[in-house]
Design a protein that fits this description.
By secondary structure, this protein is an alpha/beta fold. The chain has two domains: 2-94 and 176-210, ATPase, nucleotide binding domain (Nucleotidyltransferase, domain 5, 2-Layer Sandwich), CATH 3.30.420.40; 101-172, Nucleotidyltransferase, domain 5 (2-Layer Sandwich), CATH 3.30.420.40. 28% of the residues lie in helices and 31% in strands. The chain contains six helices and ten strands. The strands form two sheets. A five-stranded mixed sheet has the order 3-2-1-4-5, with helices on both faces. A five-stranded mixed sheet has the order 8-7-6-9-10. Strand 6 and strand 7 (117-126) form a beta hairpin. It is globular. The N and C termini lie far apart (53 Å).
């Protein structure tokens, strides 16, 4: 299988080309969006592998939660490629990709959602099988609770709100979701016949607001 994977939900942007388990990757830390990077990276990876766009079997993308702009970028590019090539597309949960990228087997994934909140979920990882113990949610850090058992906390939510989040024995705040993890999750699912037509590929926002009102900022101790 030849699979393209995109992950642009955080400041760490990446594109991966999966070929039967072998991976080629482009990545960058970008604070200013990645619309000028993603498609050139796709072309570079295909050229490096000696492939054409038509050789791609499927397209996967980090669906969210995460940056609203980043989610729309990955979804839009994935839809465009999949539609143009008449190939299936698949969204992979960003927190799920973060759990796989960590290399750990019991992960409490937590990303800074801005606006005084975090996105969080809990996953058990066994090879290429990922089981959600707690589905993605968004809440203020003080309201976050972990499922029973021992978990390794991963993601920049712990860097931003470590003192307010549940105390865990081990933290890895430097772990980010990656296109490699998106590809590793999506490949066996595509092999099982999962995936959808391009028009059905959608972001997973979890939260439907991009900014607080003045009253909400004041209620949280902000300034007018």
């Amino acid at each position: 299988m030849k699979l393209l994977a995109l992950e642009t939900s955080t400041r760490w942007l990446s594109v991966a080309l999966w070929q039967d388990g072998e991976m080629l990757v482009r990545r960058a830390d970008s604070h200013n969006g990645g619309s000028a990077l993603v498609l050139p990276w796709v072309a570079e990876l295909l050229a490096e592998a000696g492939l054409r766009h038509a050789d791609i079997d499927a397209v996967a993308f980090g669906a969210g939660p995460g940056s609203f702009t980043g989610l729309r970028l990955a979804c839009g590019v994935a839809q465009g490629l999949a539609f143009g090539l008449d190939r299936p597309a698949m969204g992979v949960t960003t927190l799920e990709a973060l759990a796989v990228a960590s290399g750990e087997d019991r992960v409490f994934a937590c990303l800074d959602a801005r606006m005084g909140e975090v996105y969080f979920a809990a996953y058990e990882v066994d090879g290429d099988e990922v089981t959600a113990v707690l589905a993605p949610r968004v809440a203020p850090p003080a309201d976050v609770r972990t499922p029973a058992g021992e978990w390794i906390g991963c993601g920049d939510g712990f860097a931003a709100y470590g003192e307010q989040l549940p105390r865990l024995a081990q933290l890895r705040p430097d772990v980010w979701p990656t296109a490699e993890a998106v590809a590793a999750i999506a490949a066996p699912r595509f092999a099982r016949g999962e995936g959808s037509v391009a028009a059905q590929a959608m972001p997973l926002y979890v939260r439907d607001k991009v900014a607080l009102t003045t009253a909400e900022r004041l209620a949280r101790g902000g300034v007018r």
